[in-house]
């Protein structure tokens, strides 16, 4: 296949225009404001719960957006020569996903009278889908072009939404913060996709697959914003009141513990006791992932701390010992280590959800049982039966992720999608006009007392 | 004119002290807490709408502050040698504008009993004014000193507030997110000002008028925060309830479309299919500008997507093809390309507002018509008549901006204001103590096992 | 004392694990959800004030977290070779403090029935404690290792919480934004600690104790986020309604004035009229500190502006003239100048609180007096008497801070805590794996049209 500049010039804009044209058309035909957003359907007082709910959720909603665009975008800026692509393609892919997920999720959840009815909660759900897509992006970061990523988002959004619909709506599984639907799904989708796209000659770009001092500081912007707002992420879809309070509190405690365990383990496993920025940037966040399912439940503050500690430990050990094996043994090249931050902690989070669900009693939850486990409260299921459903949901997610990711990998091998060559991975210059690193003049002139055209 | 260090030493501090002294004096004489802020005037329950409203608006309020200081400040950090000035002068100018606009807008809007009565909404309005001033700053970035900028803010705040008062209060024009009052006004004020300050010898500083790798990443912090919080910006002054929901939703959809069209067009118009960071940093935001007037109206989700797509396209093409013409033909040097991000999308947004106003019906808005178009709901105006007023508002804004900007240009030519010489534009060192670029020691010492005074 | 790599390898992980183990154990035994967080104790409607309050405070709550982790973390990134440690140790220390303060403050404030009852407000209070600890960190930045900092946090949290309990609960002192409890305490604790740890040979590391261009831009991220969200910080614990409105408004006005005075003074005191980034990054924030006590009171808008102006002036002059004296005369090495940003403005803020309290009348506050000065409203104290208590609170704080900081200094001299040697202060490499500064290849390859393993 002869790769020509002309060909490269056209594939990305054509895909953008095609996708935008198609979603615009679908928006025109199907998408309408819902009763919270349409002035003719709105009445204060009549919808007093609804209207308050929006305002109570608005801060969380903006926090989640910050996580998606600033958090994921800058977390991936750690590579020395891939900052434009990391933050730029995050921007592109998340943006497209917001539109596309509005449609796909709208068809599944709010399609009636021939129309999809959208409100601000449509955007929260679309953000969650974008989170999964960006997790998968982390696995293939630097080895895929923007056209490939748009196609990945196209496919993954459909599978994410279907899997989420099966779990939450058909199986009655609880997964507020998405340990299963977002983290497990996004990670294994990306890992299977990366397996199919395995590059045996990737060491040709190895010198670019590390960070520099400043790129690590940029990445910490991503880490810290993800850390701060993770409680909003996990609690965005939970019941108002105690549910949202408890979820936020559990998530914070879990994150503090995963941070402390990451610092401990990072120093412990290094040869000379020095901390590794890769661990701090990533494994410290595993506490948010691991309580994605259980944080709305009666996890207890101690349970949150214990879960976070475990997740930080597993994640740090994963970066140190398992990521190399994943590549050498399983031929999975996982650029950001999403297996350590989202994969294993996501599975642990699903299992933690099974455990805490299994322990649920009417006494522990009181009237709140209706919000957290409506099917148990209504007598349709026992706690044990709900726990089995939770476990089943995890397996369904793994099947969707692995089959979907493999499928996605073959799709992304379509030759016209313009992947970077092996020797040009992790390199912005393939897709971006890149300015120089150094300022124009190295020696700075003193302020010259020269005549000025202005005065 | 002989420029002396002594002279430079004094002009900025004197202006700061003079302006701060004057506003402090005016604060002492005129400014009082309003009924929401004064403990003796406040009663829970009696003001239940008022008190809730503050809390419902507080997140938007902080989002708008984030846009002004982080968003605008870092967006302009893209220049290689002008980061301190971009973020520092944004800080200075926005800060002064917050005080000064509180006074000017207070005299126009909340002056009674001999006092200006301020509450938190005074700060939202002042932030909007600061937004316009910073847009103008973008046009003259790198070519003006801080004393000039303070004087520009002094004048522009008065004209902004007067124009806004004429449009919103006298003409009954609707412009929640400020397509006209903020973006069109700020852009053309800055462009006319830049025209008057035209520097024929600016190519002497041309080598500094580009970015470096890291400065572009810093600028993306600004872009992304502006993008995330733009829905809060447009919806901050709209009616609570469906109005705020709809405005946020429309703004998001418009921004997603402008981002996709920017990526498409940026790759399409470049010689070799590579993306240009200038386009991504700026044109992707045009979707927020273009729905500044119409996003609170029944724009429909499709309308928002279509408007955003158009704005992103026009803006990207503007950066590629029109900015050079603006300089060569019209002698307007527009450093940040505010004509592309705020000028043209602002005018398009005003026209979109005319169109959507003209289409307004009682059926489409129901009871909500009272909030969006009170004069139509009350029977004082027809939709067509309101549309004509909207159009008239756009022309009033253009007159204020062009006359005011020209006036401002001549004001800023006052010789004692210490502009940078042609060869020292876009250079922090003129106004800042600048540290070196490189670390003290290039080769890092290994940890020496030396004795320590502490142990 | 022979310092060995093996020893260094173990002290930090062991402390992390020990501390995390101990707090986890205490969490298991003592910490339970409170009535807002436990589903069995929650009833909508019955707790209508409580439940609304959470949502009204949630944005402030997240703003405060942003200040602690992004604000403080990045503000301290200004050092050229200490970015990883600044943001990383902030992350570590604040994280541990959140857990530990939850326990200590819980025992003091919400211990009943044998349990500590935690809700989201526990995290706000813990964040405030983390703020004080990070202020102290600023004084010793670059001269202490992470194990020392953890021990400092252990001690300081206990003393902070005790001092806060004595002031707010026993003495009935008002200090919403913590001019005394947070800023004065944190600053003088750190300064006394730094005095005890005085290093006579610190000039061995002097070449690393300055900034570089990009590190100053990173630091501005910290400054601006602190500036934006300071109104949320000061108003987070005030009464809902007019109290929170007034506090936010006063804080904003004070911050605008301190910013303007910092720009004025910075240019005035420099030799050649150029601005100094150290002043802008720090002294501009002094307006938030100085109204920490008085911003919930009837300070008046003019009072806020005047206070902010004074604070910015004192702080800038402190950086220029007093910091060198502090080191040469008093042997206090204050890396971040916390004496200028938190110490002096904190004391001024305490005195301002005394003054405004002394002026409090029933007329000025109306029914709101109950919220701001309940003991005056109930007739238990006169305004003068309350003012004396405020003054006494300041002295109590100074005693706690100075004795505690000195104690802390001797504790941190324990030899096994692994401080950096004099010649390796302000150097990340002592504790972190540090990547290179420059990219792998300096000359960038053009895109090679080579065969690709993927296609």
From TrEMBL, chains A, B, C:
Gene Ontology terms: cellular component: basolateral plasma membrane
Domain Ammonium transporter AmtB-like, first and last residues per copy = 23-414
Q: Which GO terms describe its molecular function?
A: ammonium channel activity
Q: Which InterPro entries match?
A: Ammonium/urea_transptr, NH4_transpt_AmtB-like_dom, RhesusRHD
Its placement in the membrane is given as: Multi-pass membrane protein
> Where mainly found?
membrane
From the record, give the transmembrane residue ranges: 64-82, 89-111, 123-142, 149-171, 177-198, 210-230, 250-269, 302-322, 342-361, 391-412
Keyword list (alphabetical) reads: Ammonia transport, Cell membrane, Glycoprotein, Membrane, Signal, Transmembrane, Transmembrane helix, Transport
Tell me the Gene Ontology biological-process terms attached to this UniProt entry: ammonium homeostasis
User: What domain of life does the UniProt record list for this protein's source?
Assistant: Eukaryota
Q: Which residues form the signal peptide?
A: 1-24
List the catalytic activities from the record.
NH4(+)(in) = NH4(+)(out); CO2(out) = CO2(in); methylamine(out) = methylamine(in)
List the Pfam families: Ammonium_transp (PF00909)
Compartments where found:
Basolateral cell membrane
The UniProt function text for this chain reads: Ammonium transporter involved in the maintenance of acid-base homeostasis. Transports ammonium and its related derivative methylammonium across the basolateral plasma membrane of epithelial cells likely contributing to renal transepithelial ammonia transport and ammonia metabolism. May transport either NH4(+) or NH3 ammonia species predominantly mediating an electrogenic NH4(+) transport. May act as a CO2 channel providing for renal acid secretion.
Q: How does it assemble?
A: Interacts (via C-terminus) with ANK2 and ANK3; required for targeting to the basolateral membrane.
In which family does this protein belong, per the annotation? Belongs to the ammonium transporter (TC 2.A.49) family. Rh subfamily.
- The name of this protein is Ammonium transporter Rh type B
Can you name the source organism?
Answer: Neotoma lepida
């Amino acid at each position: 296949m002869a790769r020509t500049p002309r060909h490269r010039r056209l594939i990305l804009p054509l895909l953008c225009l095609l996708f935008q044209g198609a979603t615009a058309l679908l928006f025109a035909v199907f998408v309408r404001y819902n009763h919270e957003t349409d002035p003719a359907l709105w009445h204060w007082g009549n919808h007093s719960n609804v209207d308050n709910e929006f305002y109570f959720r608005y801060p969380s909603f903006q926090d989640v957006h910050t996580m998606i665009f600033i958090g994921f975008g800058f977390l991936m800026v750690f590579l020395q020569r891939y900052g434009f692509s990391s933050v730029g393609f995050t921007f592109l892919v998340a943006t497209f996903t917001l539109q596309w997920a509005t449609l796909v999720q709208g068809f599944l959840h709010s399609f009636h009278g021939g129309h999809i009815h959208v409100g601000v909660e449509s955007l929260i759900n679309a953000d969650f889908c974008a989170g999964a897509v960006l997790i998968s992006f982390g696995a293939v970061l630097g080895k895929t072009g923007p056209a490939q990523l748009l196609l990945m988002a196209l496919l993954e959004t459909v599978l994410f939404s279907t899997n989420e619909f099966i779990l939450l709506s058909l199986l009655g599984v609880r997964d507020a913060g998405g340990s299963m639907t977002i983290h497990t799904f996004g990670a294994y989708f990306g890992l299977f996709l990366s397996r199919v796209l395995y590059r045996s000659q990737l060491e040709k770009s190895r010198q670019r697959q590390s960070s520099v001092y400043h790129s690590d500081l940029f990445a910490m912007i991503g880490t810290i914003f993800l850390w701060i707002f993770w409680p909003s992420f996990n609690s965005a879809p939970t019941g108002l009141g105690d549910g949202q309070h408890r979820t936020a509190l559990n998530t914070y405690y879990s994150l503090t513990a995963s941070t402390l365990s990451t610092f401990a383990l990072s120093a412990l496993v290094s040869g000379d006791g020095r901390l590794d920025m890769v661990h701090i940037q990533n494994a410290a966040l595993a506490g948010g992932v691991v309580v994605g399912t259980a944080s709305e439940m009666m996890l207890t503050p101690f349970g949150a701390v214990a879960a976070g500690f475990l997740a930080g430990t597993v994640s740090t050990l994963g970066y140190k010992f398992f990521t190399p094996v994943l590549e050498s043994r399983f031929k999975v090249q996982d650029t950001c280590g999403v297996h350590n931050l989202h994969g294993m902690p996501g599975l642990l989070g699903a299992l933690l959800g099974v455990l805490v669900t299994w322990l649920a009693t009417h006494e522990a939850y009181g009237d709140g049982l209706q919000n957290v486990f409506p099917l148990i409260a209504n007598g349709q299921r026992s706690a044990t039966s709900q726990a089995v459903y939770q476990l089943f949901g995890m397996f369904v997610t793994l099947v969707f992720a692995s089959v979907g990711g493999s499928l996605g990998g073959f799709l992304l091998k379509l030759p016209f999608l313009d992947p970077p060559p092996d020797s040009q991975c992790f390199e912005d210059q393939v897709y971006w006009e890149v300015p120089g690193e150094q300022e124009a003049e190295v020696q700075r002139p003193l302020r010259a007392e020269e005549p000025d055209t202005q005065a």
